[in-house]
Amino acid sequence: MPDRLPPLTALRAFDAAARHMSFAKAAAELNVTPAALSFQIKSLEEHLGQPVFKRLNRAVELTEAGRALAPGAGEAFARLAEAWRSARRAGDTQAITVTAGPALTAKWLAPRIFGFAAAHPEIELRFSASLRIMDFDRDEIDVALRFGLGDDAGLFSTPVIREWVTPMMAPELAARYATPEALREATLLHQDDTYFLKPPINWAAWFRAAGLGKAPEAGPRFSQADHALDAAMAGAGVVMGRISLGAAALLAGQLVAPFALTLSTDAHYRFVCPDGAETKPQIAAFLAWIREEAAGFDSLSEGRTFIAAADIPPG
Description:
Layout: H1 8-20, H2 23-30, H3 34-48, E1 53-55, E2 60-62, H4 64-90, E3 95-100, H5 102-119, E4 124-129, E5 143-148, E6 155-168, H6 171-174, E7 188-191, H7 203-209, E8 221-222, H8 225-233, E9 238-242, H9 243-252, E10 261-274, H10 281-294, H11 298-301, E11 305-308
């Protein structure tokens, strides 16, 4: 039996029909007539020397040969589509698709992005806000801003934002809670976005670092850090604010961080992309801009007393 492959159009028709188990649905997907699709499958069967489908009255079934062929054909077309997308992106020097968490996108990227657009009008930025770790090829992503301790083996990865946390509140609350001890009477806003970190950088850790003992556990709890920040800006309570997300509100005077005690963590934001892609002009420009914007955090670090989360005794 010759090993020469059948025409690609015949294999494509078979793959669609095998996935749908319907000639009509496969024809609709490929934008051909059912007769044309049937002709392609017959051509494949003639090339193979045996049928790949059993034609029933109102349905089709794969034969043994069809079942042997279907997985490989499906995988091959999926890999071909992935390679095609990668090839198209490789030649694109005017667009970047960036994925970042919803909170960072809303509180840090979005308010600043006009500056990048003004400096680089030739580059189109597209954002995909998600907590899911996306695949660069499958999801057509160029750059990821990822938070945590991270393992980016096989990728270009560089730190861009060093994280630290401290109590943040609306200015009108600062007089009411003028000392760390006064926070025992405050509504503490809890958030779950950093609970995966070990050691933690939450209220319990900050209270221990301040020598205040056990932190109050009562108070609203938020799954998203930006929602907790919004509540703090509205005066609903005091949040253990992350500098990456709270910087804009601090600089605008919407929040204040009155206590010097600040927790640092090894967790940080990394700029991640496929190895070698960092040299592409539009990605290099975006990385330079991210670094320049992150340098603005330096002024907010002045006068702070930093304690590493790893140095805080467990509760």
